[in-house]
Amino acid sequence: MSIDLKNVDYVYDSGEPFEYFALRGISLHIDDGAFVGIVGRTGSGKSTLVEHLNGLLFSTRGEVIVDDEIVSKERTVLAKVRRRVGIVFQYPEDQFFAETVFEEVAFGCRNYGFSKEQVDESVHKAMSTVGLDLERFLSLSPFQLSGGEQRRVAIASVIAMGQKYIVLDEPTAGLDSGTKLAVLTELEALRQTANVTVILVSHNMDEVAEFCKEVVVLDGGTVAFQGSTDAFFSDVDLVDRTGLELPESYRLARALKECGSSLTVNECSTSRMLDSLRLCVSDLGGA
């Protein structure tokens, strides 16, 4: 099963003097269990694209297909699609309303008709997944939490519903570096243990290089690249043409290579860089 877009256009203010093509001829495929990055400069169509994945927006032309279900405005179809695809928007904590963390995370489950036992089990499992201690957090007000804790609550509220595709629009915005790493590591663990597909919209190329195995690059509302993250960041000219920056690990790898190192540039996520640097020191005559 998968998510597929076929020749999708989306026009804002269609037929009006200021109509604007936010998406133009988008075709892409996202497999089950993938960790996919969606990147592009500001205004490239990233947010517009992901809002098509669970029927918040509907294509002007073309088809969006989720697990063989063509997304449409029909109520029963929308219910099925939204049961499968959950979206966590940037700064989701701005939409909190419940009095306790438990009630916040449980809200979606109850909307889907979970029994009390199912709600309890889903909330507990989701909070554990995002690293929130149950005894400490369940009865707290979400408005008492730190920014990182609030973001985890928002992600838990989507995870609790058991959706198989989780779309996150800049989930680490405003978080400190340690919390960013923890949140993304928890999402990767969820992907591995529950075969959840994670779709990450991000402007942070270091995060994309570290966690995303595949990347979709948007440029002016079109797909400029879809494929291996390593392949994209290894093409410096393409990265430059799409208005993006190389991750720090790739920039460092290239600098070392220019100094005579044997480090392979297309194997340079931050985690792999640490091991590679030890070899580089030896290659360059270090200790």
UniProtKB/TrEMBL annotation:
GO terms for cellular component: ATP-binding cassette (ABC) transporter complex. It is found in: Cell membrane. It comes from the Bacteria. The keyword Transport applies. InterPro entries: AAA+_ATPase, ABC_transporter-like_ATP-bd, ABC_transporter-like_CS, ABC_transpr_CbiO/EcfA_su, ECF_ABC_transporter_ATP-bd, P-loop_NTPase. GO terms for molecular function: ATP binding; ATP hydrolysis activity; ATPase-coupled transmembrane transporter activity. Coiled coil: none annotated. Residues 3-245 form the ABC transporter domain. SMART domains: AAA. Keywords: ATP-binding, Cell membrane, Membrane, Nucleotide-binding, Translocase, Transport. Belongs to the ABC transporter superfamily. This is ATP-binding cassette domain-containing protein. It comes from Candidatus Cryosericum terrychapinii.
